Amino acid sequence: MLVAGVLIAAVSVGAWWYARRELARNLDLRVSDAARRLWTQFTPRHGAAEMRDASLSVFGAAIDQGGIAVLARSHVGEKPVIFASAAAPADGFRERLPSGEGVATTQDESRPFERTPPAQRGNLLRPQMPEIRAPVFFTSETTKGAWRYVALSSPRHTLFVGLSTREFYAEVRRSAWTFAAAGAAGLALAGLGAWWLAGRAMQPLRRVVATAEKLGAAELGDHIPTKPGDDLEFAQLISVLNAMMERLHASFQQAARFTADASHELKTPLAVMQATLHDALRSGQPPQVEALLGEVARLKSITQSLLLLSQADAGKLPIQRERYDLSTELAGLIEDADALCAGANLTCEHTIAPGIEVEADGALMRPVFRNLLANAVKYNRPGGSVAMSLRREGDRAIFTITNTGAGIPVEMQARLFERFFRADRARQGEGTGLGLNIAAEMARANGAEVALEESRTDRTTLRVSIPMMSRSSAASA
């Protein structure tokens, strides 16, 4: 508003100054035009009566009504004032009028008047008043107010014609009030417009504040509403905030589900150990050490898995990426696969491309492949098969493993890599449901990706995509 007020005031003052200058220029034009019309009727031989008749013929009744002031002065003779109209002040008027070389100049009386050449031979025209100076404009303050005059001079006469400035100053005041009122109205409209625009622009922020005030862990799934009229910047801000709240909501849900699942998984071995110890106390017999050791091993496995996942979530998973010969690593894995498949009445097929090297931490990638192999054997059907392949696709190495077990239902495929999730309902008592999630986190830490490639009723294929070792890394290695 301050800036708008200064700008409007500057524009108003500038416009008023320009209008005042144009009004003054128009006044001078009116005075000059009136004087020029009378000057053409004025001759060197005119006296007071002729001057009055000439003024009446040019200006009409305005001469007697005071609408215009006319004064004719002579520089020679005993009577300097030839004619003075009713509006021309008498006392001290001559002293207040300009004099000297700029307005009037005397001339030697022996010098004849200049005459205009006749248009036709023998036709004598009346002598015309020559001008010896350019018209001079000035303002004179009198008892009747200020008057704007123009002076036209010949060698022997000076003609003064004036108009009252009363109408001029009234117009100037009217224009000043007009510009002041227009400026005030413009400032008021600017203020109202700024208030309306600011209120409209702040509506999306009010919705953001209202949503944030009621935000809690249970309301993270709520979205900040958007409207079609929202500005692009606020719409983008609201979209980013909604996406952030969706991620937070998903993280809170995952944390809550993880806590519940972890508690459930830890509760089972603890309950088994507690029951075994109670039976031993009641029977007076030593507890079954083998059963206790099995449950302790299961607790240790769950604890280690949870520790590993917490490190991955915090971004503190220790990793050292270096040259990793994936073809050699998988060749060793095939030997274990043959043994596992033979024990489970499965056939093992493999197609491993030689010489494929990646940039990864072998200590972290090795459990990824072993976990996928273990799942492929565990969730297979008797007499089925396990197929592994390694190939190069562009700048990535692609490892796939396929088992011939029952497919994963479509509604469960999106949750396959969630923690404590088991797709096989019949085997809820086996494992912890953390294997695939740990494999995915270890692969992600190495810049790799584990994904479900396809799952049909009799076939499921998992895919591991690993970035190849760059040339610069290979050269430095």
Architecture overview:
The chain has 477 residues and is α+β, with helices and mostly antiparallel strands. The protein folds into three domains: 2-105 and 127-172, Beta-Lactamase, CATH 3.30.450; 232-313, Orthogonal Bundle (Helix Hairpins); 322-476, Heat Shock Protein 90, CATH 3.30.565.10. It is built from twelve helices and twelve strands. The chain has helices spanning 2-39, 48-59, 62-65, 93-96, 166-213, 232-283, 289-313, 326-343, 362-378, 410-413, 435-445, 471-476, and strands at residues 69-74, 81-84, 136-142, 145-153, 157-164, 322-325, 347-352, 357-360, 385-393, 396-403, 449-456, 459-467. It has a five-stranded antiparallel sheet with strand order 2-1-5-4-3. The chain has a five-stranded mixed sheet with strand order 7-9-10-12-11. Strands 6-8 form a two-stranded antiparallel ribbon. Strand 11 and strand 12 (459-467) form a beta hairpin. Helix 1 (2-39) runs antiparallel to helix 5 (166-213), helix 7 (289-313) runs parallel beside helix 11 and helix 8 runs parallel beside helix 9 (362-378). The longest helix has 52 residues, at 232-283.
